[in-house]
Amino acid sequence: MATTLEISFFNSFLIKKVSNASNESVFPNGWPYNATDPLEVAGGGTLTFPGTAQTTVDTHDVNWFIEETRIRGGYNNTQVDLGVRAYLVEEDTEQQHRLNSLIYSGIYNSRTGVNNTNQFSVGKDITKSLDPANGSIQKLFSENTNLTIFQESKVSSALIDKDAIYTAEGSPVQTTSNVVIGQVQAYLGEYGISKNPESFAYYGYQKYFTDRDRGVVLRLSRDGITEISRYGMIDYFRDNLKLINKNNVWIINTDLTTESNPSDNTQILVSGADLNTALIGMEIVVDGNTVALIEDISVTNSTSGIVTANTRLNISAGDIVTFQSNAPSKIIGAYDIHNKNYLISLQQTPQYQDTTVDGPQNYSTLAFDEAVKGWVSFYSYKPTQALSVVNDLWSVQYANIWKHYSNNVEVSTFYGVSTPSNVVFLFNDNPSISKVFQTVNYEGDSGWQVDYFISDPTGYDFSTNAWQSFNDSTQNVQSYYEGEYIDAGITYYSGFNRKENKYYANLINNSSVQPGEVVFGNSVSGIKGRYATAKFSVDGSTNPGGIKELWSVGTKINYTK
């Protein structure tokens, strides 16, 4: 079947080639319909196309033109030569992916109705290229009349529509007023944003982001770029940022037991899995081959349900079925306007993995506070995205929106899951002197307990050529109310006891026997060591969900000779 093409008066035009990942040319309106079908031209005559009978043909090395030599296509009309090609400035008309360049269109003015955002005139200098050695441009951030450009290995600033050169009298040089993107100036330091633009957050004139390739967290301010990860967290971020991989393939629920559902050939019965709606859209892999996508999940309980696919399933009992995702690791950044903190969530696995309290948690969410120039807290939630709106912090997990610091939600509860708060302390006074830690005390609200109080490890033993893990440790110290008991009408406290609004407790040694010890265990007062580590956490019965403050923690030390 031939296709009719109406031509008004143009003597030639170009079917522009568009390159894609498969190196194919995609033609408007789906032509050529068939290489054997002629193309009828108004006024008489036909045109044919080279190639095969398909709507997309491999024409990587072919330029497609339709040309006629007679004006209006009329019989015996005046013949014209090819002449100039309007708006064509280069022979290679394929799309180009210039990862280190910027391009801008015409202006947009909503008040006057001017909208030239679809105009990219090649007659004007509308591109600005940066050094390709610094990698691709990952993020742009406009601020007043400045544009901050984040490449993988460099951060730069460019002027936007601003006169940067002035005369001796202070008047701007008008020849530069038509330059939209002015001179690009790089900030000092070999830092970039790697390939994690999602880590960017800002507040006021301060901008925060990570450089995964260099293992640092950065702040861009008026004084330039500063490594805020060096405030007591150099080792932590160096070790954890390198675990963020953009090319991860995650296999979920590898221990499924399945059987065909006879009622529907697009469904499978699943048991032994942690099912949730966040798995929707993941691949269903049977014996190593992807067969379908998860379209819906009907959960019977937390570990069984019916998974519906988007196509027919041929699964029999005994097949190895897994759910797979190509979602990359992420570094989610946000600014907590409520506490004035920069939040960062390092997520090795996708958001729908490792969200249970007791399961493996391959993520960490923590906060940086400018007031103390330090990292002040870890959090137990794993957001998909977070942002601050009107003095409130909001975060998203899956499709659920959560408002933080709400009076209607218990403390340390995120997305309906409550996690007890805890603080780890290090007692390191005179670390070169061996000592005995006899008591522990704190100032604050009732409801705090000590989960562990341990000394430093023994270290390397040259007699056995092995590392030894000997530590002195104590029994858990119960909170004030949980340790309360009555004997013969007298109230005692086996854990913390309150005296003048300060809580004290003895440290009861609970260590195993170590070589060379004569007295050990609960026969020893306190624990011995050069330093000690203690973990304080809130109990489960004292004002559940309420605020429990902890102002200071101390210990009584007896120096040994």
What does this protein structure show overall?
It is built from one helix and 47 strands. 1% of the residues lie in helices and 40% in strands. The chain has a seven-stranded antiparallel beta sheet with strand order 20-26-23-24-25-22-21, with no helix packed on it. Strand 18 (216-221) and strand 19 (224-227) form a beta hairpin. The protein folds into five domains: 3-73, no CATH class; 97-186, no CATH class; 197-246 and 336-349 and 364-415, Lipocalin (Beta Barrel), CATH 2.40.128; 250-325, Elongation Factor Tu (Ef-tu), domain 3 (Beta Barrel); 423-559. Mean pLDDT is 78; it is low at 8-36, 40-45 and 49-63. With 561 residues, it is mainly β.
Write the layout of secondary structure elements.
Elements: E1 3-5, E2 12-15, E3 25-26, E4 39-41, E5 46-47, E6 56-57, E7 64-67, E8 101-103, E9 108-109, E10 114-115, E11 127-129, E12 137-143, E13 146-151, E14 155-160, E15 181-186, E16 201-203, E17 206-211, E18 216-221, E19 224-227, H1 234-241, E20 250-252, E21 257-260, E22 267-271, E23 283-286, E24 289-301, E25 304-309, E26 321-325, E27 330-336, E28 341-347, E29 363-369, E30 374-379, E31 385-389, E32 392-397, E33 400-403, E34 413-414, E35 417-418, E36 422-427, E37 435-444, E38 448-455, E39 459-461, E40 466-468, E41 484-487, E42 490-493, E43 497-499, E44 502-506, E45 527-529, E46 532-538, E47 550-559
Parallel strand pairs: 1-4
Antiparallel strand pairs: 2-7, 3-6, 4-5, 8-11, 9-10, 12-13, 13-14, 14-15, 16-17, 17-18, 18-19, 20-26, 21-22, 22-25, 23-24, 23-26, 24-25, 27-28, 28-29, 29-30, 31-32, 32-33, 34-35, 36-46, 37-44, 37-45, 37-47, 38-46, 39-40, 41-42, 43-44
